[in-house]
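User: Hey, my collaborator sent me this sequence without any context and asked if I could get a structure. I don't really work with proteins. Can you help?
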Amino acid sequence: MIYKEGEKKRSLRLEEQSADLAIIGGGMSGVCAAITAARQGLSVLLVQDRPVLGGNASSEVRLWILGATSHMGNNNRWSREGGVMDEILVENTYRNPEGNPVILDMILLDKVVQEPNIKLLLNTAVYDVVKKTDDKIDSVKAFCSQNATEYLISAPLFCDASGDGILGFLSGAAFRMGAESREEFNEPMAPDLSYGELLGHSLYFYTKDTGKPVHFSAPSFAMDVQTEIPRYKSFNAKEHGCKLWWVEYGGRLDTVHDTEKIKWELWKVIYGVWDYIKNSGNFPEAANYTLEWVGMIPGKRESRRFEGDYILSQSDLIEQKFHEDAVAYGGWSIDLHPADGVFSSRSPCNQWHSKGVFHIPYRCLYSRNITNLFLAGRIISVSHVAFGATRVMATCGYVAQAVAMAAVICTRHHKMPAALYNDGLLPELQNELMRTGQFIPGICLNDPGDLVQHCHISASSGLRFTGFSEEGYILKTLMISAGQMLPLKPRKVPVMKIMVHALDNTTLKAELRTSSRYGSFTPDTILSSLNIPVSQGAHYVELDFDMEIEKEQYVFICFLANEQMQLAYSPQRITGMLSVFNGTNKAVSNNGKQAAPEGAAVDSFEFWCPQRRPEGQNLALQLDTVLSFDVENIRNGVDRPTTKPNAWVADITDERPFITLQWEEPQAIKKIHLVFDTDTDHPMESVLMTHPETVMPFCVRNYYIEDDNGNTIYQKKDNFQTNNEILFAVPVVTQTLRIIVDHPSATVAASVFSIRCYSK
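Assistant: No problem. I've predicted the 3D structure and written it out in structure-token form, which is a compact way to encode the shape of the chain:
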């Protein structure tokens, strides 16, 4: 091909693309939004300015995905985010338990390309917006550096999931940058100027043991960290990757336009840190280590925050205010950092936890002045203080799923985003979200299209719990206070007993606790206390609190620390049952108790948290009454433990447990949706950390579905996912369905949270 000389100007190749929804940004928010919308039938354009998906979670940055579970370091039980976010984390744990960020890249890309309704544009940056009116985006212009192609992207609805809000900024959407005054939202936690108004960027590095001595010569720009960084003694040869999240800088600069400047300063720090570790002589254990990888782009925390019809603030989080338009939740601490970052002499973070998860209302998820612009990820409508909790990736992706479903409802009813709230369409949005696995605290699925709501349900068995199995019990010293969570109905608290072993004559102190906030999991209310003298040796100890419980809820049977006492623990694990401990978790500023500063408008309380498996066995309590796990739970509209387990659990002795659904007339069933227990208490950090198992121990691996003639119409082997959707090419006509499940193991009984059936 020959091109003529002398042409004054040439134009780039132009491609015009259109879709129902254009999503700008392919981080976790963009990915979750794109998959959610595509599965509901929308055509989606996903535009990402990087060569990989995942944003801060990708191999380019390598930060773990976290949200309300907060490293299992708070009181937010069973709070891992649902929907697509859950699906990705569960699959990553299954396929990538070592936390390899390159494998996570692969998983995210695989998830996106499996959706035929998604058109993916990588290495493509938006640089301009076309508008015919002031309040609406008609199209955007983008450029791909790899194929030298310009794109004109048109859509009736746009979602900005870009992190810095490039689409919102170019379109004229109202936004904020920097901290608000304490007076604007009555936020005592709003920082003063000495603390700074923005959170900075971070760069990470990975190290590797080569098995032989490795020399390191620092570059000319490496910083002398011993003179420049106040906390330089915190560096060590063992920690790398995002465990060094506090290597942060840029909070006093423009975190959008000064990003390259910030990156260079962080490079100086990183190479200076490695020079210190390799050449100071303080770390002989690093002799064989090499610097395997250094980030090329910084992980960003904060820049622009856009204004919706509601701005979430500190009191929403701390008081856990109920919002009728809630579509998501958060549960990370209010986590603010000094603007000077790694150069500050202050603590690198200032984390304050709420007593439970908080609502994120729909009104925070669209622009108040650009009518067809959704907001997703860290740019949603929140104050700087509230941003400290909403900015983490699992929360961002969860919010984005709500945005995607809102786009579906907008398309269905020919509405703009704000109209869903103003025209009373929020219940429809909430129901559609919950049908796809999105848990919204305090709201139950109301699904008249679910055929299971109109059938007779029975089961081959049901767990009648009177205590944990004592076979193979383990004695553990009560070094820290330990507790067992029990789901009780309104009734007298059961009389309990437990095997103890006293190393000397001592006193066992036990407390019956509940949560002051109904439905929360912070055991801050002591209902009754027992002081039981125990002589040296092994004994059964009886616990009779002589109390009535007025509401269905979890109670905590707490045993206070006593180094002279050992308690019996059971290897048996049961859906909706959990042991908790008043220990510490320094990763999330959990020192066993949160002592709030005076005037901070933050709660003081104790942390009672689970332990990661293989630890965290249940206390081997024996009860004088029965706790039932009713099969009716599978249609109550809640798919995880809340004030009760919300699950059917089979009897472990039932060799072929099953649930039978029977209708008065034959039904034409097109779709079946099953929800299993993948332990939403486990945070499933996506990179760097490893996990004790690839499949959660409660998850049903194998199941079979039979019609009324006993024919197997579907079977699944080796399941590991929470949500299983079965779509029949031709509807199955039957009057009865039988769902047969295998027990996951000899110590874990099969359980099911939900079964839903649809005719279309």
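In plain terms: Residues 83 and 220 are 48 Å apart (CA to CA). You can pass these tokens on to your collaborator as they are.
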